[in-house]
Amino acid sequence: MGLLWEVGGVLALGGVSILGLLLQGLRICNLEEALEESGASVERLRVAELELQLECRELRSALRAERGRRERLETQLKLLRQWTAE
């Protein structure tokens, strides 16, 4: 390591000021915190995506069931009309 000296009231170590090191440490802490928050956000969004996928499957299933019901009703109506027309 370099020598410790005072430059204009700011301590410096090997050409790097202590204040600069403290600010860099603060930036690192802020970035680590932002990274943690981002990771938590990604996890929340992943869970929401899975929930939406499940809901979509349920809706597709309900839609298929309703289409099947409609087709059965149309067939019944057609057969009933044919029977009454004879």
In short:
Helix content is 79%, strand content 12%.
Describe the structure.
The protein is mainly alpha-helical and 86 residues long. 79% of the residues lie in helices and 12% in strands. The chain is built from 1 helix and 3 strands. The protein has one helix spanning 18-85, and strands at residues 4-7, 10-13, 16-17. A 3-stranded antiparallel beta sheet has the order 1-2-3. Strand 2 and strand 3 form a beta hairpin. The longest helix has 68 residues, at 18-85. The radius of gyration is 35 Å and the shape is rod-shaped. It starts with a strand and ends with a helix. The relative contact order is 0.05.
For the biggest sheet, the summary is: 3 strands, antiparallel
* Distance between the amino and carboxyl termini: 106 Å
Q: Output the helix-strand order.
A: EEEH
Q: Which word captures the global form?
A: rod-shaped
- What structural class do you assign from the helix and strand content? mainly alpha
Q: How many strand elements?
A: 3
As residue ranges, the low-confidence spans are 1-7
Helix content class = over 70%
Q: Beta-strand percentage? A: 5-15%
Radius of gyration: 35 Å
Spatial arrangement of strands, main beta sheet: 1-2-3
- The count of helical stretches stands at 1
Average pLDDT, rounded to a whole number, is: 87
